[in-house]
Amino acid sequence: MAGTAMSRRASYMYGNLLKPDPKGQVGAGLGTTTSAGTVTLIAPTNIIKETGQKEKIDGLTYEFLMAPGSEAPSEMMWFVEEKKAMEAAEDATHTLHNTYSLRGAKIREPLPWSKYLNQALVMWGDKVEVIFAQHHWPTWGNDKVVAFLKSQRDLYRFINDQTLRMVNKGMTMREIAEAFKMPDSLANVWANRGYYGSVYHDVAATYVLYLGWFDGNPATLHELPPVEASKKYVEFMGGGAEVIKKAKAAYDKGEYRWVAQVVHHVVFADPNNQDAKNLEADALEQLGYQAESGPWRNFYLTGAQELRKGVAELPTPNTASPDTVRAMSMDLFFDYLGVRLNNEKAGNAHVKLNFDFGQDGNYFVELENGVLNHTANMKADDVDATISLSRDTMNNIFLQQTTLDDAVASGAAKISGDKAKLHDVVSYLDRFDFWFNIVTP
Predict the structure, then answer these.
(1) Is the pLDDT of residue 2 over 60?
(2) Are strands 85-87 and 76-80 parallel, antiparallel or unpaired?
């Protein structure tokens, strides 16, 4: 549902906007980068429902291990018996993965992640001879595979357990992330390095997973919003010129983290101050060149680019492909419309609609209190209008291959009742622009 915001941040994370060269995009940690093409999918033919389920595919026997809530909400690993080969999904790769993705996503849980890998060892550890995963190369030989799985298992368990240990000592999110240290036995394993995820942001995410964003200090409970706070910070520090003067001295000392942090306030207090933008960009570039994590490097360097040149509108992946739209359930479709509802435009409007999709079912949709609710398999009697159309027609409208008015004119859709009420609801829906500022207000 985060949609556009997630995709916009993903353009930073994967370096899509950077020139591929030694000072720009050199990779994304888990691979090279994403394409600017259309994202699509192939609908499944068989559904795997439980751990231990076996399926014969092209003469080979696959045994599955369900791993929901690890790297993805729906995740599974499997073992090909005849080949003694384990497919680890993205739960065991040659990098520390993200328990929180910087592009924006729900936090992933490191504890069950670790337990799934332990379960894989129990199920297949005595017979596996090769392990492979998305994006990465295979590992051969039982001893090496088992050692690899154990180190990945312990990596995520260590992040979970030690974060909670430090939480119980009264430490806050950033204090824990800054002080956190892996034992050499884990830190010096190639596959555990932070080329994609990082110990810092995975640990911070684990804190938020258990305790949320508030650190317990009431001074941070209701802070001023960024622009207003930045103006006051800059005023208290003696004005923008004084901050830049001191920040330049800090930059010369190599204090790039502090320069980015403090000059950020000048940029938010005065977004037209190009000297401040350039200095923050310089600091971000240095942080990018020092970063081990591909996403960290890309965020830093893309942020520097935005500060110097503004928002660049370049090709990006198209995630709203026809196949993706067709695969959406109607429940998910109406949830998406609810996210798009601009409550200020809707005001106190109260609209009730029936949607009849024929063999694909009926939905009752009600706009009230600035919220768009929907109920499946229901037809209300006292509605403002009833809209009858096929799912295919709805998909074409959503994909902007036709309009509702054209669908009505062609007979592909029928509206009975007060048509104006439906048009009112449509007029309340926001359209999200992909491009927006990230490092400037």
Answers:
(1) no
(2) antiparallel
Q: Is the pTM of this model over 0.85?
A: yes
Q: How far apart are CA 250 and CA 76, in angstroms?
A: 48
In DSSP notation, 73-107 reads: SS-EEEEEGGGTEEE-TTTS-SS---SS-TT--PP
DSSP state of 224: P
- Terminal-residue alpha carbon distance, the chain: 23
CB 221 within 8 A of CB 190: no
The one-letter amino acid at 371: V
Which residues, 6+ apart, have CB-to-CB distance to 101 below 8 Å?
A: 13
The single residue listed with the structure tokens 């942090």 is: 261
Spatial distance between the Cα atoms of 384 and 434, rounded to a whole number of angstroms = 34
Q: What is the dihedral of CA 249, 255, 257, 263, to 10 degrees?
A: 0
How far apart CA 334 and CA 206 sit, in angstroms, is: 32
- Counting residues of the chain whose pLDDT is more than 90, the rounded percentage is 77
- Residue labelled with tokens 């938020």: 208
Task: List the one residue out of 79, 71, 77, 86 whose CA is nearest residue 155.
Answer: 71
276's enclosing H/E stretch is: helix 274-290
User: What pLDDT score does 157 carry?
Assistant: 97
Would you state the pLDDT for residue 32?
Answer: 81
**Amino acid, res. 32:** T
Average pLDDT rounded to a whole number, residues 272-297: 97
CB 281 within 8 A of CB 301: no
DSSP letter at 203?
A: H
